[in-house]
Design brief:
Strand content: 15-25%
CATH class of the largest domain: Mainly Alpha
Subcellular location: Cytoplasm
Protein name: Ribosome-recycling factor
Main location: cytoplasm
CATH superfamily of the largest domain: Ribosome-recycling factor
GO molecular function: ribosomal large subunit binding
CATH architecture of the largest domain: Orthogonal Bundle
Distance between the termini: 51 Å
Strand order of the largest sheet: 3-4-6-5
InterPro entries: Ribosome_recyc_fac, Ribosome_recyc_fac_dom, RRF_sf
Number of helices: 4
Radius of gyration: 22 Å
CATH topology of the largest domain: Topoisomerase I, Chain A, domain 4
Length: about 180
């Protein structure tokens, strides 16, 4: 039965890391990335939809994202949505194509971004630790209900801790890589 608890916990920890990786992609580095515009929503026939549903978003070069609206009348709305986002970007229209140049980041901005990456990492670690706690409590309940022995509990808790440590070290490695990416000029 402890194998079920372990499998469930490990699956949820893996999901936490996937969510963390997605959050890291949205943190700006010096380079352009289409994922940077994922959080932007545009008004489309009365409802707010993600930018990727009304335009083709791709890289022109290392510092420029191009946004190609699928409908001509969407250009101004897309440009306004990008400009008003908290990303600090200034899009420019070239006919139907919207170019979004990445301004170089100041040292202060880079430090803010690394702090943001660390905070995201800490949130992911908290999620992993909460899953560890839940798994340990489930094992303790099994012992209390006489479905497992105390030796099984000790082994399970050690196993759960190893899995937790592995996931936390993966999060630390991802944060360190992102920090290097942000600080690279």
């Amino acid at each position: 039965m402890t194998a079920d608890i372990r499998k469930t916990m490990e699956g949820k920890m893996d999901q936490s890391i996937v969510a963390f990786k997605n959050n890291l992609q949205k943190i700006r580095t010096g380079r352009a990335s289409p994922a940077l515009l994922d959080s932007i929503h545009v008004e489309y026939y009365g409802s707010m939809v993600p930018l990727s549903q009304v335009a083709n978003v791709q890289l022109l070069d290392a510092r420029t994202i191009s946004v190609q609206p699928w409908e001509k009348n969407m250009g101004a709305k897309i440009e306004k949505a990008i400009r008003e986002s908290d990303l600090g970007l200034n899009p420019a229209s070239l006919g139907e194509l919207i170019r979004v140049p990445m301004p170089p980041m100041s040292e202060e901005r880079r430090k803010e971004m690394t702090k943001l990456a660390r905070n995201e990492g800490e949130s992911a670690k908290i999620a992993v630790r909460n899953l560890r706690r839940d798994a340990n409590e489930a094992v303790k309940r099994m012992v209390k209900d006489k479905l497992a022995s105390e030796d099984d509990q000790k082994r399970s808790e050690a196993d759960i801790q190893k899995i937790t440590d592995r996931h936390i070290s993966e999060i630390d490695a991802l944060v360190a890589a992102k920090e290097q990416d942000i600080l690279a000029v």
